[in-house]
C-alpha cells in the first residue's frame, strides 16, 4: 500500500490568501495543515507521496525533505490547467504503479488515527465518514447512507440529502479500483473523489465506511479555517517577541518570532500572529494574522489578514484581507 496526499489544488475559495501559498501549508496553531496529516501518515510506516503542481512545487520541496517523503508533480501552473484530484491519482499510478492506495485530501484535518482506519480495511474501498449533524450543511459534501458499515447510497452535493453522514476526504482504494481510473476519466468529473465513489457504487463495487466523531475540518473557507484553529490551538506558543507591559495576552495564542505587541493591546484568545508583525493599541481575537503585517488602533475579530498588510483605525469582523493591502479610516 502507498499513501498519497493530494495537495495539487489552487484553493480559489480562499483567495487571496492562497493565491501564492498552497492551502496545505497554511498554519493552524503552531503547525501547518500538512504537518498534522504527515505526522499521522508516517506512523503507518508506508511509502508516502505528496501530489502537487508545478506552481507550488518549490513550496513543498522543503516539506518533502524534512519528512523524507517524495513529491509527484503535475506540470500545471494555473487553475484552468489542473488535472483534478482523480487526474492526479491517475498520474500517481502511472509513476508509481498499481497498488492499494490510502488517499488523503491535503486540506483536511481529522481526529482519527490512520492506524485505526486501516485496521478496518479488508480489501474493499473504504471511506471515512463524519456526521455533520445538519442537512443544509450536508449539501456541500458527498452524502452517505449506511447499512451497518456498508455504503448503500452515495450522492455528491445532493439538493436533498438523505442523511447528515458525509465522506471526508480519506479513502482506501484497492488496486483493482485504481485500475478503473482510465475508464472513469473517460466521462467522469476529474476533480472530486466523491463522484468517483458514487460511480464505483453504481457499478456495484462494495464500499465500506469508517465512522468517527470528535472533529473534522475541510479547510475550504475562512469559517472552517478559523474553527479548526479554535479546535486545535489548545496551548500557547510564544516565541521571542517584544511586548509592552500595558498589553495583555489571553491564551491560547501563537505569536511568532520578531512580533511586537505595543501600547495597550489585547491578543487572544485564539489568535495567530505571524513573524515580525506589529500590533499596537489593538485587540486581535479569533483571527489569523500573517507575517509582517502592521495593525494599529484597530479591533480584529474572526478575520484572516495576509502578509505585509497595514490596518489602521478600523474594526474588522469576519473579514478576509489579501496580501500587501493598506486599509485605514481617517483619524
TrEMBL record:
The molecular function GO annotations come to:
nucleotidyltransferase activity
According to its UniProt record, the EC number is 2.7.7.-
Question: Which Pfam family would be a valid example here?
Answer: NTP_transferase
Q: Which domain of life is it from?
A: Archaea
Q: Where is the Mannose-1-phosphate guanyltransferase C-terminal domain?
A: 249-313
User: Which InterPro entries does the record associate with it?
Assistant: GMPPB_C, Mannose-1P_guanyltransferase, NTP_transferase_dom, Nucleotide-diphossugar_trans
Recite the UniProt keywords alphabetically: Nucleotidyltransferase, Transferase
Q: Where is the Nucleotidyl transferase domain?
A: 2-233
Uppermost EC category: transferase
| Family statement | Belongs to the transferase hexapeptide repeat family.
Name under which the protein is recorded: Sugar-phosphate nucleotydyltransferase
Please spell out the taxonomic lineage of the organism that makes this protein. Archaea, Methanobacteriati, Methanobacteriota, Thermococci, Thermococcales
